[in-house]
Amino acid sequence: MPRSSHLSPIAAADGRRARTRVALAVAALVVSAAALAGCSPGPAKLAVPSPAPEVADACTQLIQALPAEVLDAERRKTEPVSALTTAYGDPPIEITCGVAPPAGMAQAQSQCFEVNGVGWFAQEVTNGAIFTTIGRKVYLEIAVPKKYAPEANALTDVSDTVKAHNTLITPCT
Known about the structure:
This protein has 173 residues and is α+β, with helices and mostly antiparallel strands. Helix content is 32%, strand content 25%. The strands form two sheets. The chain has an eight-stranded antiparallel sheet. The protein has a two-stranded parallel ribbon with strand order 1-4. The longest helix has 31 residues, at 9-39.
């Protein structure tokens, strides 16, 4: 004999309502957890350069000094973990220090543009733009996806830190 036969019709209905409320609460928790998981994109996967020790030291200080946000996007973890990289937002704005100068930079003086006293070399790529410092002790590269267009606006958020932590060798001309 089923258990519900011992219950009055009102008690049985109350039990069904209680089970329905529990099921709805569990469903709401599952949906909330899925939504929160979607808000946390996980670490950004970035290639890590292998610069000389003095460059790595300068880059570590520069990366640590970068702001908590770039273009209103918060800093996020990178993978592998490295003192030479950081990222912001989703899709990630990727910042890597200690990179080699990009191809085409030999003619960069004619392509150098300044943002807050820092010279930059710009390259358009399929999914956005890559900016590399010019005339500084170490090369810092910022890859900015099209989502953040105009991509060069990211440079205003980082140029003051670059200026303070990356020695000027040759200014843009």
